[in-house]
Backbone:
């Protein structure tokens, strides 16, 4: 099993690579979109600004390569944090307050990304720290062995609201109910950082790597 | 429910960890790497690692050491010390940092906070503010360059400015309380927590678990940081969390795998 980590110029790549090495997987850092076909599954990390990252994905040919390999060829994909938000149709991050047009995302999972404040959260933003995650009963393999209420590490100001609630795999509570994980077929995403969630995160990554089609 | 974080602060100077009193009288604590490893094994909530002499050097940051320290760290790692340029941030994130902590550069080039927030998101920027109480006893003044240079900035005004520029968290440190074990400056933490809507990490002065409880319950801190207390006493982050839980504060418990599911 070759797991590719997409390096499109942003993200805490060091942490993601190390977490995979700790699981005794040899991760491949993919720095060119044309090399994306050489791996069996893909992780799209992301720490950054949606508009800038969406542009980097487009410019580097990543968006098209991901459509070919993930949507057409059916390769499993896990988006992490901003990498999950980029799976959405669009985001309001990096868009002027009075703008009507949102920034388009990859569109793999229909839905939009909104600021937590806009969604009604009145607590301190960003949402930073460890928060309990409730996985929905039919969530399948990603949360195998992970009890409901397990704490994962979050750090974000925006949240993914899928159009179809069936795509919401897990949620957390921060003043409002926040999407913690999404799934659409073989495409997965977590708002929290499994690579920084210690042993709970390792378990989730192992679930993704060992049984991505579950 | 979001848990209150207990964060060991590791101050690093050349080859090892150090800890002082009032940002002075540095004592050597030991090597960095084993400390990071132990804290990782004990599943602390987060770690802050600051190179306290980087701002004095004309050389670039020591990315190789950061890379080595991050090797065994699977909890969030905030790295600070001497960051002045946006290019350094991506290199730190590649080396294993998850967030960066900026202090002196927020005064010398305030645009940097906004640049990091735009490129890497607000959640990536921890703005660190070091303060001393005004001689009159009213209010606090911010100091740069590891607490050595007065900036003339009043802490609440400055915290609001950093929030406006895109900082995602504020690490507020009382220089006078640092290393004293007397407890956090609760009035300071409370003032800053009221001034801004981003999370506040209380720092400087923690000497026992009750001090941490007070910082959260009385002053409204989102997280508590400590160094001397963990370096020089038998108290531990796990002990702190147990005490906080007993006081009714939500803290993270270690992950226990569910074998039946």
Residues:
């Amino acid at each position: 099993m070759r797991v590719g980590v997409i390096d499109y110029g942003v993200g805490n790549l060091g942490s993601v690579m190390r977490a995979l090495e700790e699981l005794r997987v040899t991760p491949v850092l993919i720095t060119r979109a044309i090399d994306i076909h050489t791996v069996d599954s893909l992780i799209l990390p992301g720490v950054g600004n949606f508009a800038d990252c969406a542009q980097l994905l487009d410019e580097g040919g990543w968006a098209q390569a991901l459509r070919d390999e993930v949507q057409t060829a059916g390769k499993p994909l896990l988006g992490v944090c901003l990498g999950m938000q980029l799976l959405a149709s669009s985001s309001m991050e990096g868009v002027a307050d009075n703008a009507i047009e949102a920034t388009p995302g990859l569109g793999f999972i229909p839905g939009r990304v909104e600021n937590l404040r806009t969604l009604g959260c009145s607590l301190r933003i960003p949402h930073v720290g460890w928060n309990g995650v409730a996985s929905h009963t039919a969530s399948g393999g990603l949360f195998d062995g992970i009890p409901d209420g397990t704490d994962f590490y979050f750090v974000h100001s925006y949240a993914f609201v899928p159009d179809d609630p069936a795509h919401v795999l897990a949620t957390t509570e921060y003043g409002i109910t926040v999407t913690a994980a999404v799934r659409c077929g073989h495409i997965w995403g977590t708002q929290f950082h499994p690579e920084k969630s210690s042993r709970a995160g390792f378990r989730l990554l192992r679930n993704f790597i060992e049984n991505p089609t579950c | 429910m979001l848990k209150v974080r207990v964060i060991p602060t590791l101050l690093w100077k050349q080859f090892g960890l150090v800890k002082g009193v009032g940002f002075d009288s540095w004592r050597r604590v030991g090597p960095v790497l084993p400390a990071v490893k132990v804290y990782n094994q004990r599943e602390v909530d987060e770690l802050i690692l600051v190179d306290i002499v980087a701002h004095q050097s004309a050389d670039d940051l020591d990315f190789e050491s950061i890379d080595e320290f991050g090797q065994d760290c699977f909890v969030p790692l905030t790295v600070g010390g001497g960051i002045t340029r946006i290019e350094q941030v991506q290199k730190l994130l590649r080396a294993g940092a998850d967030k960066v902590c900026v202090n002196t550069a927020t005064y010398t080039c305030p645009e940097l906070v906004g640049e990091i927030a735009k490129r890497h998101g607000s959640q990536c920027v921890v703005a660190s503010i070091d303060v001393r109480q005004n001689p009159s006893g009213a209010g606090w003044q911010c100091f740069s360059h590891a607490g050595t240079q007065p900036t003339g900035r009043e802490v609440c005004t400055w915290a609001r400015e950093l929030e406006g520029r895109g900082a995602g968290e504020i690490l507020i440190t009382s220089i006078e309380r640092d290393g004293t074990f007397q407890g956090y400056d609760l009035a300071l933490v409370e003032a800053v927590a009221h001034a801004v809507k981003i999370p506040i990490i209380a720092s400087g002065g923690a000497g026992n678990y009750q001090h941490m409880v007070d910082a959260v319950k009385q002053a409204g801190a989102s997280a508590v940081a400590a160094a001397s207390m963990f370096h020089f006493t038998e108290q531990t982050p796990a002990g702190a969390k147990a005490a906080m839980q007993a006081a009714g504060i939500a803290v993270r418990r270690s992950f226990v795998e569910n074998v039946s599911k």
Remarks:
- The first strand of chain B starts at residue 5 and ends at 13.
- Residues 5-246 of chain B form a domain with the TIM Barrel fold (CATH 3.20.20.70).
